[in-house]
């Protein structure tokens, strides 16, 4: 299965991957594991994004994801959905 197909990519066993993130609302900075992030790949740049819930304030955060971010998140085992 390619990194972009299906709804989930299985990552080889290894050390857990964490991603640096920041909240748009409270501006807190933190690290999240792959299970705390969701990636949506849409038909355009405007509809491709990742999202998470801020552990500091509980806000739902949604940020655009370019090609490099998509590569990093899928390679790190983040659950991926395709949007049409």
Largest sheet report: 4 strands, mixed
Radius of gyration: 13 Å
Mean pLDDT: 86
Please mark out the parts with pLDDT under 50 across 5 or more consecutive residues, or reply none.
1-11
Which structural category do the helix and sheet elements fall into? mainly beta
What share of residues are in beta strands?
A: 25-35%
Structural description of this entry:
- The strands form 2 sheets. The chain has a 4-stranded mixed sheet with strand order 5-4-3-6, covered by helices on one side. A two-stranded antiparallel ribbon has the order 1-2.
- It is mainly beta and 84 residues long.
- Mean pLDDT is 86; it is low at 1-11.
- The chain has one helix spanning 67-75, and strands at 18-22, 29-33, 38-41, 49-53, 60-64, 79-82.
- Strand 3 and strand 4 (49-53) form a beta hairpin.
- The longest helix is centred in the last third of the chain and has 9 residues, at 67-75.
Quick structural overview:
With 84 residues, the chain is mainly β.
């Amino acid at each position: 299965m390619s990194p972009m197909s299906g709804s989930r990519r299985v990552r080889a066993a290894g050390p857990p991957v964490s991603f640096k993130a920041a909240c748009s609302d409270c501006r807190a900075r933190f690290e999240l594991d792959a299970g705390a992030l969701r990636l949506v790949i849409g038909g355009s740049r405007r509809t491709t994004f990742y999202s998470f819930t801020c552990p500091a304030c509980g806000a739902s955060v949604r940020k655009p994801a370019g090609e490099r971010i998509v590569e990093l998140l899928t390679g790190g085992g983040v659950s991926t959905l395709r949007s049409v």
